[in-house]
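LAB NOTEBOOK - FOLDING QUEUE
OPERATOR: T.R.
BATCH SIZE: 2
PURPOSE: Compare the predicted structure-token outputs for two unrelated chains run back to back under identical settings.
PRIORITY: normal
REVIEWER: second-year student, initials M.K.

ITEM 1
FIELD SEQUENCE / FIELD STRUCTURE:
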Amino acid sequence: MAAHLKKRVYEEFSKVVQVPHEEAPAKKLRLSKPSKSAALHVDLCKASSSTDALQYLLTFSRKPVEAESVEGVVRILLEHYYKETDNSVRLKIASLLGLLSKTPGFTPDCIVDDAINTLGSESKKHLDSFTLESNIWIHSH
């Protein structure tokens, strides 16, 4: 009897059942270009001098920027503006910010606070410097 049960169990578990294979739908791939903000950030970080940075900005200004990339580009430009000491580079960044704000489909509301904070801290820095220079001049005369 045990041999008969063993044989029956073995037969049940040794059967091969084929399940029809359902083909998974093919996944569609979408090719995308690297973002303009990432490319600009890399270029500006590679700049070893203000002349290099200015050259990268000039090259960048000749390329079109899609509306969905503008916010990232503006944030990178504001970040670099704050770090930059050369006035010609800062002027080019300010010019690019003005041009980018006019991009069709871009609403500058999302970056206005960042721009105000950057420019506010910038004007405070210059005001503090001016006040210090004025005090030195007054005390020396």
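ITEM 2
FIELD SEQUENCE / FIELD STRUCTURE:
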Amino acid sequence: MKLALALIVALQVSVCFCALPEPDKELVDKYEGLKATFYKRLVSAYQKAHVAIGTLAEGTITGEKAKEIVDSVKASDRAQSAAKALAAVAEELEPVLERARMAALGVYGAYLRPYIGEYLDHGIQSIKPMLDTVLPVEGQ
């Protein structure tokens, strides 16, 4: 047990001393732009699917029953407290996730971007027209 604890402490210390490269400002801006566009696409797709499913479910027995279940879940104290707990956990994890993203961008920028950056950018630019057709960004 003592050996395992010593090994864990040694690994903790060795991990703390490794410094990851900082990402370039241009790379962070490009990432943030792509992330924002992706989220807009997801929100737009969700809204369209919600409207389509809502119109299909209107007037059917199953649709009315589903609407009753959703309303009862929304009114439930357990569901509301679970949603609040999940929101609090997400809020607590946000800084950790942001540091992990920046570390990953730094590693990508320092070690991978010189070799695969051009191909990745070309792939992203090639898939954008298809995404604009299938999942358009709202407001375009």
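REVIEWER COMMENT (ITEM 2): The helical segments are 2-17, 25-57, 61-75, 77-134.
FOLLOW-UP: none requested
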